[in-house]
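so my prof wants the structure for this chain in the tokens format not the other one, which i didnt know existed until like an hour ago. anyway here's the sequence
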Amino acid sequence: VQMLAQTEGILLDPVYSGKGMAGLIDLIRRGQFGKDENVVFVHTGGSVGLFGYREVFAP
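here's what i got, hopefully its the right format
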């Protein structure tokens, strides 16, 4: 969650979208996808859930 916020400026909630992205990053690191393959992660919301996790995004 922090890595994506810092590198891409995309905020994900740590409960749902954050865990999904962590799983995707793990698959990429393990070589599940070829370098020439396109991968799409659909982030459909969850920003309301961020308010309970202010400490995660604090500098």
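also thought this was worth mentioning. The chain has a mean pLDDT of 84.
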